[in-house]
């Protein structure tokens, strides 16, 4: 699915609250000024990237939003959190990198302009090379490398998204399996505290930002899905209250207020890759995330290749036949805890 070009006139919705307007436009001015005045080292190493570093060894926390331009809830949530924190800047307990991913797509209210930015965090880009987002991915990779390059051992990357379609679990996360055991436990405990209902363990990269940070920088990286896509300024942030609190706790080095809650854990049974334009799914693309399918049921067919459910039960996540050839068109998962 190729996006079309952003018209020069593309604009954010009118009358946005100021913190939301500023973050959505990657205008860090007021927030940066407050942290700087409080003695932090503040820099903007690339468009849409802000780093705030304090003294002494601190956890390194990368928060990214808007990697998909129409996933606006997390932009609002982070905008309010950061605005409030910057007014008592001395409370920041981590070295922070804040990244507003696809600025043009946010302005246009689209998932992407040319191609999916969240498939480009790898060297082999195939037909995605040469797109507007490939250049952006290079900028983000460079900034991320610098940020984690001088970080201590505690490294986090929370890449905040929203899902396209409804979900049995309104909030869920994808966690790379390669994260070492201790940071992975800490990350999953944090996700539980954040009210995340399900965690999918992912064994292989499809070029996502959080997998990149985990694989190349030893970060406890995760993609977090917070509700569904919506119009900037019109999201119901009450549904993210636990996630917002847990993120605020992390930023302030506070005790995890939601500690003790555990998400359900799912393993990946299979990533369904679209091999050709003949790819057809056996069900509608509005099928809810985590819909259960039984052994032997057809998932999709792609020319002569037929995908069927292998385990007694598998659940489908992110079914999307409209992706480009070569990209993930869905994920089959199995519940393990
Ligand atoms: O709802 C959908 O179909 C997509 C939502 C979304 O953007 N999800 C991320 C997940 C990334 C990961 O697997 O870590 C994506 O597809 O990029
Ligand atoms: Zn997304």
TrEMBL record:
Domain AstE/AspA barrel-sandwich hybrid: 262-335
PANTHER family xref list: ASPARTOACYLASE (PTHR15162), SUCCINYLGLUTAMATE DESUCCINYLASE (PTHR15162:SF7)
GO molecular function, one term: hydrolase activity, acting on ester bonds
Binding residues for Zn(2+): 68, 71, 161
Entry EC no(s): 3.5.1.96
This protein's pathway: Amino-acid degradation; L-arginine degradation via AST pathway; L-glutamate and succinate from L-arginine: step 5/5
GO biological process: L-arginine catabolic process to L-glutamate; L-arginine catabolic process to succinate
Similarity field: Belongs to the AspA/AstE family. Succinylglutamate desuccinylase subfamily.
Pfam families the UniProt entry points to: AstE_AspA_cat (PF24827), AstE_AspA_hybrid (PF04952)
NCBIfam families named in the record: PRK05324.1
Protein biosynthesis among keywords: no
Cofactor note: Binds 1 zinc ion per subunit.
Database matches in InterPro entries: AspA/AstE_fam, AstE_AspA_cat, Aste_AspA_hybrid_dom, SuccinylGlu_desuccinylase
The name this protein goes by in its record: Succinylglutamate desuccinylase
């Amino acid at each position: 699915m190729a996006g079309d070009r952003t018209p020069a006139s593309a604009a954010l919705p009118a009358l946005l609250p100021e913190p939301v307007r500023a973050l959505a436009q990657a205008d860090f001015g007021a927030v940066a000024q407050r942290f700087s005045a409080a003695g932090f080292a503040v820099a903007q190493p690339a468009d849409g990237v802000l780093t705030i570093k304090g003294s002494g060894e601190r956890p390194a926390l990368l928060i990214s939003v808007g990697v998909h331009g129409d996933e606006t809830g997390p932009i609002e949530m982070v905008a309010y959190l950061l605005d409030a924190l910057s007014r008592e800047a001395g409370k920041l307990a981590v070295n922070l990198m804040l990244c507003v991913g696809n600025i043009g797509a946010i302005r246009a209210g689209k998932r992407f302009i040319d191609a999916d930015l969240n498939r480009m965090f790898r060297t082999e880009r195939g037909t995605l090379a040469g797109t507007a987002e490939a250049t952006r991915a290079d900028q983000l990779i460079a900034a991320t490398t610098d940020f984690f390059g001088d970080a201590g051992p505690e490294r986090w990357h929370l890449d905040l998204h929203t899902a396209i379609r409804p979900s049995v679990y309104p909030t869920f996360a994808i966690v790379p399996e390669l994260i070492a055991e201790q940071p992975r436990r800490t990350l999953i405990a944090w996700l539980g505290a954040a009210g995340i209902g399900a965690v999918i363990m992912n064994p292989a990269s499809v070029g996502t930002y959080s997998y990149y940070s985990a694989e190349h920088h030893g970060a406890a990286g995760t993609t977090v899905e917070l509700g569904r896509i919506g119009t900037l300024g019109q999201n119901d942030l009450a549904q993210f209250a636990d996630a917002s609190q847990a993120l605020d706790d992390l930023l302030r080095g506070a005790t995890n207020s939601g500690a003790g809650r555990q998400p359900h854990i799912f393993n990946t049974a299979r990533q369904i890759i679209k091999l050709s334009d003949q790819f057809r799914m056996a069900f509608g693309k509005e099928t809810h995330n985590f819909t259960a399918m039984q052994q032997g049921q057809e998932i999709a067919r792609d020319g002569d290749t037929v995908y069927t459910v292998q385990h007694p039960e598998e659940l489908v996540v992110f079914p999307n036949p409209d992706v480009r050839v070569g990209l993930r068109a869905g994920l089959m998962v199995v519940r393990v805890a």
